[in-house]
Specification:
The complex is a heterodimer of chains A (300) and B (289). Chain A is mostly helical. Chain A folds into 2 domains: 1-38; 68-299, MetI-like (MetI-like fold, Orthogonal Bundle). Helices cover 75% and strands 0% of the residues of chain A. Chain A is built from 13 helices and no strands. Chain A has helices spanning 3-41, 59-66, 69-101, 105-120, 123-134, 140-147, 164-189, 193-201, 206-217, 219-234, 238-243, 255-264, 269-299. The longest helix of chain A is centred in the N-terminal third of the chain and has 39 residues, at 3-41. Chain B folds into 2 domains: 12-71, no CATH class; 78-248, MetI-like fold (Orthogonal Bundle), CATH 1.10.3720. In chain B, helix 4 (68-75) crosses helix 14 and helix 10 (179-187) crosses helix 11 (192-221). The chains are: A mainly alpha (300), B mainly alpha (289).
Chain lengths: 300, 289
Amino acid sequence: MQRKPLKLETQRKILGYFFLLPIVVMLTVFMFYPIVKSVVMSFTNWSGMTDDWEWVGLNNYIRIFTNMPEYWRAMKVNVIYALIATAVQLTLGFLLAVLVINMRPRWQSFYKIALYLPVIIPAAAISVMWRYIYTPEYGLINQFLRAIGLEELCRAWTADPDTALGAVIVTNTWRYAGFTMVLYYVAMLDIPKDVLESAQIDGANRWHLIRYFYLPLTRGTTEINLILTITGCLRAFDIFYLLTSGGPGTSTKVVSMWIMETAFQSYKYGRALAMSIVLFVIVVFTMVIFRLILTPREKE
Amino acid sequence: MSSNPIPVPRAKPHAKRHWTVGAVVEQILLLLMAVFVLYPLFFVLLTSFKTNSDVILNPFGISTFEPQNYITAWFTGKVGSYLLNSVITTLVTLVIQVVIIVLAAYAFGKLKPWGYNALLSLLLMTMFVTSEMTTVPNYITIRDMGLMGTRWSLIIPYVASGLITGTYILTNFVRELPKELDEAARIDGAGIFKILWKVDLPMITPALATLVIFNFNGVWSEFYWALIVIKDEALKTLPLGLINFQSQFTSDYGVLTAGLVILTVPVVAVYLFFSRYFIAGISAGAVKG
């Protein structure tokens, strides 16, 4: 009596391995293998075009740290971008969520759907659209400035070294503020309503509610938002590539763009891999640092 | 009342405040934000129906109606061909992904072969892998497989990139399916595949739908990898095509924005139709993150 179900159980377990075969093969070939290969080949002078390569030891890494000022110039662009874009996006997202959550349900759905809309729009479409908006002659911004008589402010927004990075940040904010907002909004839905109500009865105003309830009770979300946004900014590629192509000059050239050029235009794969790994380590390190900074406060 | 998770009672305490100055100011601030977000989209839509002279003379209004822009974009700008490529690439990717994800989630959630937990943890590590680390080796793998210059150079890596998050989310759903139905079906003599197909699959369809919508968006919009592997004009997907398009129609804003609208409409339509799933998906992702 007992043997039959056991055998069926065994059959099911063996079948389980067959079911797992496709995912294991795919992830091994396209995720695990690339990582191992990246690490190994970053110690070579491989061009990527042929099969000859030689070990160069730590040379690629030494070069990054001693003789590659353009890498660190690009890193500086990434860091400045990360700091400003994250500050703007998180502040705006949080404040929007506080406003939206106090609206009537119908307005809540409207704002949720409307403000999240840019997140789903393809990067290629966003960039073409915003390039058009920033265009000197017929772009939305300059046309608007002319219409209200501020013609002297008109400029080529993405081609002017003073405003190119700012233009990218504005576009990035337009694109992701709704995402940050929705994450905060979802977290705020979990705050018990009677707590907020009794605080209001006790005379708490909106500022008190933000300071003592909304902000501390969404700390986990702040951490997620912070990590997602900062690491996203450090690895940013698409919006820069499509909006400014790193210009004017190299004033908005980010690290990923530099890596791509090294690999696919200069054909120095080995070096590009070392550059990727340094970036990866910096991103992971940033993530760990932020977790360490943010987590102990939660326990207080 | 506090145990009620549905936000129905929320309207009550604030109904009183609805007409105060503060509430009006807040509503205005949010409306301004909505205008900031939506107006550029509207501006692009409007431009796509304008002649070039109208673009210059009449930036904010419209005095001509030029649907011809869409025809030019479709034929001269080859948007029709890009669109077809995008549709094929996306559909094939999603179908393969769904099959692999359903099988994996069923194995992890139900069949539980020995060591499944360790394997799942190992696979989950790939969630933290960044594209900088995989792009170059994957390029070589695809080249060595002889797939360069074919659609598969896009499809196979796309499939791989969406697998683990999907499997993770779906596994949690499969794990919570009631066991009783399975056992009843088994006693009735149904085999594992029949149970999977007839009993369990219908129950995980909503979760699967959410996944498909998310992955649809990712695949439809992807251009970084496509930019690297696709050199053949005939295989270009819409995002890549649109970038080309931009250099071809630099000053022809009507045609350029028409191409833009064609690229964007499918994702916006899917989003508006399934917006509920999107929001649910983000909160699931947030809990995971």
